[in-house]
Here is the input.
Amino acid sequence: MSDLLDRALAPLRTHPTLRPGDRVLAAMSGGVDSSVMAALLHRAGHEVIGISMQLFDKKTVQTSDGRCCTLDDFQDARRVAHDMGFPHYVMDFEARFRETVIEGFIQGYMDGETPSPCIRCNQHLKFSALMERAEALAAPFVATGHYATIEAERGRWHLRKASDPAKDQSYFLFHHTQATLARTLFPLAHLTKAEVRSLGAELGLHLAEKPESQEICFVTQDRYDAFLEAEGRDPGLGEGEVRHLDGRVLGRHHGYWRHTVGQRRGLGVAYAEPLYVVRLEPATNTVWVGGEADLLGRDLVARELSWVDGPPAGPLACQARIRSRSQEAEALAIPLPDGRIKVSFAEPQRAIAAGQAVVFYRDGEVLGGGWIDSRP
Here is the structure.
C-alpha cells in the first residue's frame, strides 16, 4: 500500500461513527471522483452499494465532452463496481429531478433570475432522495465524490472547506443539516485532484484519466436559451426594450430570459463604453444595462434559508459568497420578520444575481445559505 492510499484511507478508519463493514450507498456518476470515492470505501472494508441516478432521458441529450450522467458514464460506473467487486444499480429519479430541478431552472429564468441547478440537485436528489433509498436498504451512510470536509466536534457536526481550495465544493452543499451530515461521507475531502487520479491508477480503475464534467447535465452545448425554447416556456412577450439606467432606449432584445446579470456580450446595442446587463424586469419585458460601476452593490436579500446548526438568534457577522467562483467577503446578515435575511457587505460586490445562492462562512466553515431574491 502506498503512502497516498494509506493517507486516503485514514479518515475512514478514524470516522467517529463509521464502523468496519458498515453498508454505504455510494453515488457514482461515472467520473473519476465518485469512482475513487467508492473504491476507497470498498478498500476500507465497507459494504458498498454503487448507485447511479437516472435523472433525465439520456437519449434526448447529446453525449459530449464535459457533460456528466450520460449512458457512457453509467457504463463506466458499472465497470468500476464490477472490477472492485461490489454491486451497482441505476435508479430512476427522472420524475423527481424534473419536479425539483428542471422546473425550478425554467421558472427561474422566466422570473428574470439566474438559477443554480447543481445545488438544487444536491439538495433534493443526492442528499434527500438517495438518503431515502439508503434507509430502505438499511445503509447508515450515503457517500459522494464532493470535495468538502465533515468533522465532528463536541457532539456537533461541522461542514468545512476541502483541503484543496482549487477543488472545494462546500458552496454547493450549504443545505446540509446536523441530521444529513451525520449520515454523509466525503472520502475525498483531504485530497487534491492529482492525488485522486493517482489513486485511481493505483486502484486499477480504467477511468483514472477521464476528463472532468463541467456543464449542466441536461442542457446541451451550454445553450440554456435553446433548452428553454425546446421546453416551450417562452413567456410569449416577444421583443422588448434594452434600456440604459438613465432611461434611454438603446435597442431591442429577443427575450429577457436570454440574458443574465453581468452579461456583456450579445446585447445587440452600440455604445461608446462597455455595457453590462444590470437588471432584468420580466413585468415590463425590459433588459436594463449600465456601466461596470453599475454592477456593484452592497446589499441583497435572500430567501429559503438553510442552516447547518440552526438559524442565528440575531445579526450574524460572517463571510459571504455570492457565486461559486467568487471569494467570500465580510458581511453582516440580519434576519427579517418575513423569514428572509438581509446581507450587507463591507465592500461592494460585483453582479449580485437573483437566483444564485449566497453562502455564509466563518473561518472556512459553512454556516448556511439561501437564495438571492429578486425582491428588495
User: Anything to note?
Assistant: Helices lie at 3-13, 32-43, 71-84, 94-110, 117-136, 178-181, 193-202, 224-230. Confidence is low (pLDDT under 50) at residues 60-66. The first helix runs from residue 3 to 13.
